[in-house]
């Protein structure tokens, strides 16, 4: 019954992720500190995911390759997780991704949220798909093309318009620096997690990432004298929204949509996320962007969408833990068509030798 709802599920996921910055602003207004927000968000999300894994043992395994679900898009099926138990190194890497990478990224993101508008932060942070593309090229995991170079140039110009086009108060330099730091940290997180994403089921990997981040933030709280949890019911309600709606629900609906649409379609639909943030911020926080900033934001989002499209390339899978989102992916060889070798970005190349695996290519995820 849900086969035709893939795009709707992806859009719902983007909307949940996009609401996180607004929930964060409302939590701050209710007296919640950034340290308390992060600790409760990751701790509650980890507890919910652990409960799901206990109640639904099937989530501990990847989708069965014997019975793939129908998809609306042309992308190949999502590769299943490898059978058997994960090694201690893989589990340690997953925990480290949360303890080091995701904890740092989220700390920078919510620190920036204290100093700048939610809508502006969402546009600055959404430069991470572009940074992932650059990183993948530098690491030899991807190839530069004329279209991608043009998209990156457009994105750089759009980012400048977003930062310099403010008609009201000037952009907080430290806030903008923190936002770019969050984007760069998330880029590194995606590229590193590319080494384990295909070895663990998505919900298991997300639960480990959340657990690792919770451990780091708990240790930091102990070393800095603890966090103040004495805020009122309103503060707890907004924290529950961040942890449940913008983390757990956003992640699960993305996976459900991903399996029905394919990675490329899901990633492009995820560009709806900053649009939701901007709209909700305008409705609830009376924030607004100038026409110049809106034009810059459109350039950034268009470039991000263009960079998701890989005609003739193999599929990518992303897994997220955020504010939103997702993240790394792997490349999977499509079946050889009759009459010739598989295409590769508009050209042809010989099929890799038997037993050799192509290098993984990171996918783009929605937000923090």
Brief write-up:
With 368 residues, the protein is mainly α.
Which descriptors would you attach to this protein?
368 residues; mainly alpha; two-stranded antiparallel ribbon; 60% helix; 1% strand
Structure description:
With 368 residues, the chain is mostly helical. It has one domain (3-60, 87-332). The chain has helices at residues 6-18, 20-29, 34-55, 88-115, 118-125, 128-138, 146-164, 173-193, 202-223, 233-261, 263-269, 272-284, 291-308, and strands at residues 343-344, 347-348. A two-stranded antiparallel sheet has the order 1-2. β1 and β2 form a beta hairpin. The model is unreliable at 64-83 and 312-364 (pLDDT under 50).
């Amino acid at each position: 019954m849900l086969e035709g709802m893939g795009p709707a599920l992806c859009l719902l996921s983007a909307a949940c992720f996009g609401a996180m910055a607004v929930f964060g602003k409302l939590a701050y207004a209710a007296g919640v500190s950034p340290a308390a927000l992060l600790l409760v968000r990751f701790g509650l999300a980890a507890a919910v995911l652990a409960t799901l894994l206990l109640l639904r043992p099937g989530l501990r395994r990847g989708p069965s390759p014997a019975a793939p679900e129908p998809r609306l898009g042309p992308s190949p099926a999502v590769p299943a997780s490898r059978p058997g138990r994960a090694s201690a190194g893989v589990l340690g890497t997953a925990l480290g991704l949360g303890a080091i990478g995701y904890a740092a990224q989220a700390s920078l993101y919510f620190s920036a949220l204290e100093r700048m508008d939610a809508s502006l932060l969402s546009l600055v942070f959404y430069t991470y798909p572009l940074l992932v593309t650059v990183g993948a090229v530098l690491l030899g995991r991807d190839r530069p093309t004329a279209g991608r170079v043009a998209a990156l140039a457009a994105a750089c110009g759009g980012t400048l318009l977003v930062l310099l086009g403010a008609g009201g108060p000037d952009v907080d330099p430290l806030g903008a620096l923190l936002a770019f730091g969050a984007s760069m940290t998330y880029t590194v997180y995606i590229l590193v997690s590319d080494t384990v994403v295909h070895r663990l089921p998505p919900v298991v990997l997300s639960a480990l990432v959340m657990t690792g981040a919770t451990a780091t933030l708990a240790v930091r709280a102990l070393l800095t004298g603890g966090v103040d949890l004495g805020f009122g019911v309103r503060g707890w309600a907004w924290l529950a929204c961040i942890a449940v709606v913008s983390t757990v629900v956003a992640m699960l609906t993305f996976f459900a949509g991903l399996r029905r649409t394919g990675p490329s379609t899901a990633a492009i639909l995820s560009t709806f996320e900053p649009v939701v943030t901007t709209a909700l911020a305008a409705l609830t926080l009376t924030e607004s962007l100038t026409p110049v900033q809106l034009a810059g934001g459109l350039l950034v989002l268009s470039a991000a969408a263009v960079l998701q499209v890989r005609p003739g390339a193999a599929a990518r899978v992303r897994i997220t833990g955020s504010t939103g989102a997702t993240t790394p992916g792997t490349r999977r060889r499509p079946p050889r068509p009759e009459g010739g070798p598989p295409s590769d970005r508009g050209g042809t190349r010989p099929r890799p030798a038997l037993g050799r695996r192509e290098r993984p290519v990171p996918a783009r995820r929605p937000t923090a």
